[in-house]
Automatic annotation (TrEMBL):
Entries under SUPFAM superfamilies matching the protein: Acyl-CoA N-acyltransferases (Nat)
Organism superkingdom: Bacteria
Organism annotation: Megasphaera lornae
GO molecular function: acyltransferase activity
Pfam families according to UniProt: Acetyltransf_1
Location of the protein in the cell: Cytoplasm
Domain N-acetyltransferase intervals: 1-147
Keyword Cytoplasm: yes
Protein name (record): [Ribosomal protein bS18]-alanine N-acetyltransferase
Gene name of the record: rimI
């Protein structure tokens, strides 16, 4: 497995992961737009030895803040540390381009993701009521400041 910066040609592979990972996936057109807008976005993909995309992570970069859009790994590759690897690569790239803090939303029921985010230095800052659909659920908004990021693995 390798993690590399996403390319425009990765849209269909990212879309396949998106459909497996989320109850309300982004459209392939939306993903294509994200990959084209490199002034404001950064995306990384997890690629298997066969060249298939097994996961991805994305972030919007505005001024000195980052907003993680999605972190997703195909079910067959979960529980092996690949989500953390993707997240670390993405966060370190965000720090390099000048982000002082990074935000994300996570379902309040997704305790394993919240545990990973806390491990990396995120803290809960607020709740967005009924943020998610299918099923409707609140989102926990979390923030990581650069100085709080946990570098050790």
């Amino acid at each position: 497995m390798i993690v590399r910066k996403a390319q425009k040609t990765d849209a269909s592979g990212i879309f396949a992961v998106e459909r497996e990972a989320f109850s309300v996936p982004w459209s392939q057109v939306a993903i294509q737009r994200e990959l084209q807008n490199t002034a404001l976005t950064m995306y990384y993909v997890l690629v298997t030895d066969r060249g298939d995309i097994a996961g991805y992570a994305g972030l919007w970069h505005v001024a000195d803040e980052g907003q993680i859009t999605n972190v997703a790994v195909l079910p067959a590759f979960r529980g092996k540390g690949y989500g953390e690897l993707l997240l670390r690569v993405l966060m370190e790239a965000a720090w390099r381009v000048g982000c002082a803090s990074i935000f994300l939303e996570v379902r309040v029921s997704n305790l394993s993701a919240q545990q990973l985010y806390r491990k990396l230095g995120y803290a809960a800052v607020s709740v967005r009521r009924a943020y998610y659909s299918q099923p409707t659920e609140d989102a926990c908004v979390m923030e990581c400041k650069k100085e709080r990021y946990c570098w050790s693995i």
